[in-house]
Design brief:
By secondary structure, the chain is mainly alpha-helical. Helix content is about 75%, strand content about 0%. Helix 1 runs antiparallel to helix 2, helix 2 crosses helix 3 and helix 3 (about 45-70) packs antiparallel against helix 4 (about 75-85). InterPro entries: Asn/Gln_tRNA_amidoTrase-B-like, GatB_Yqey_C_2, YqeY/Aim41, YqeY/Aim41_N.
Length: about 150
Amino acid sequence: MSLLSTLNDDMKTAMKAKDKESLQVIRMLKASLQNEQIKKGAELTDDEELTVLSREMKQRRDSLTEFEKAGRDDLATQVKAEIKVVEKYLPAQLSEEEIRQIVADAISKTGATLPSEFGKVMGAVMPLVKGKADGNQVNAIVKELLNK
């Protein structure tokens, strides 16, 4: 079943349950996927759907950070609820230990030893963790391991 079909089914369920918050997020996800599909002019692959979902998650995490910095707890609470809905459609997230192992493997494969080789390591790591880990967390782990 495609992601759009899943979203349609979940949208119907949310409508019947009168779950306005989930319904709003599901509609936004569906719209983003359909917009991407229109841009491409063809059906999206699973990888492209994952890219769209990851972008939506990143936007919400960035918003959450900004709202917390500004002391807007009301908006932060709303964004946290949206994040929970988006997480249902993303693959299971990797633990910090799993990310560290992937980064360590990428560092040994690329032969990177200097912090200036950060881009090379990130280029090797990101395709492996796409949609399964927060880019900021991966970024921090790569920097930490390269600075040892």
